[in-house]
Amino acid sequence: MRKAFICPTKYVQGQDELLNLGYFIKVFGDSALLIAHKDDIERVKDKLDSTAKKFGVTFVESNFKGECSREEVARLQELAKNNKCACTIGLGGGKAIDTAKCVAQGDNLIIVPTIAATDAPTSHSAVLYTPDGAFDDYAYFKQSPSVVLVDTTVIAKAPTRFLVSGMGDALSTYFEARATASSYSNVNAGLPCGYREGLCGEAKGTNTALALAKLCYETLINDGVKAKVSSDCNLVTPALENIIETNILLSGLGFESGGLAAAHAIHDGLTILEGTHKYFHGEKVAFGTIAQLVLENAPKEEIEEVLEFCLQVGLPVCLEDIGVETITEEELKEVAEKACIKEESIYSMPFPINVDEVAAAIITADSIGKNYKNR
């Protein structure tokens, strides 16, 4: 059996760690292309100026346009070439991070997340969009980022909703990895650069990935509520440090090397409903996780533990919590059909899947969540 595990070369997390960014740039050279939204640069400008001076490095600002599109990637690659940049930095949220991955093509890449809202920073994949924001394609690279540098002081000062959304994304990690392991399905870690050209991309998850995914869930249960309070106070505590690591590292390694299953597929289906558009990825994944547990007929105690956690930290437990006040049978079928397209991760579940069963799981999860919330 072929197995695969993928991870960043180096992960560093700590208070004011951004002050050490220049040290990691120096590993590659004296200049770096900085891909970041102007607001994110402004948030950390003092630290960027300090690290540049201390280590004698130069940031080439990119005037990032905010969308990870082929056109923007080509423009930034030309900018990096013309300025002889030794490495690429993706600083900020998901779009800047994914753009940096595409520009770097797997080489000399430093990721500096300023929020802990998703597990994207550690992965070797990115999502491409058209210039007007429509989905284009997925991209996979030969390796994960060279360095993931996490400044917990910066993340502590970000709105708490981002941290909670990251917990929603991380919440699915163990349950999806568990399902993938049970079904012996392939994981993203097996996808090399050139996958679409026919190179071998099939690989199962490792025991290491499943163990990390389990630790991801356990840490959420133990420290999630305490971390939310810390974030509300904009303070770094051991609990917040643990949840930042959980949202970014444990969830990132868990999803890419452990696998995705129904929770993310149901999230993808829910995105066709206009009411969900103002909600974050992790918020919708949290509800998708509950729906997956219903779909697999998980023990009542396990479902209630997940529901209790969601309510304590402020994650959705029913459709109205993600902007869906009502849903018609036609809309429900469309959601379930999108969740069940042939490319979706829902087929990593360890049993046959059909549209009617997915639709039933969504409505049942909605009812269970409402009843638990109103008990």
Strands in their spatial order, largest beta sheet: 1-8-5-4-2-3
Mean pLDDT: 95
The strand count comes to: 8
- What does the overall shape look like? globular
Largest sheet: 6 strands, parallel
- What is the annotated CATH architecture of the largest domain? Up-down Bundle
Tell me the CATH superfamily of the largest domain: Dehydroquinate synthase-like - alpha domain
* CATH class type of the largest domain: Mainly Alpha
Contiguous runs where pLDDT drops below 50 for at least 5 residues: 193-199
Tally of alpha and pi helices: 14
| Rg (CA only) | 20 Å
Structural category is: alpha/beta
Cofactor: Zn(2+)
Catalytic activity: glycerol + NAD(+) = dihydroxyacetone + NADH + H(+)
Organism: Paraclostridium benzoelyticum
GO molecular function, one term: glycerol dehydrogenase (NAD+) activity
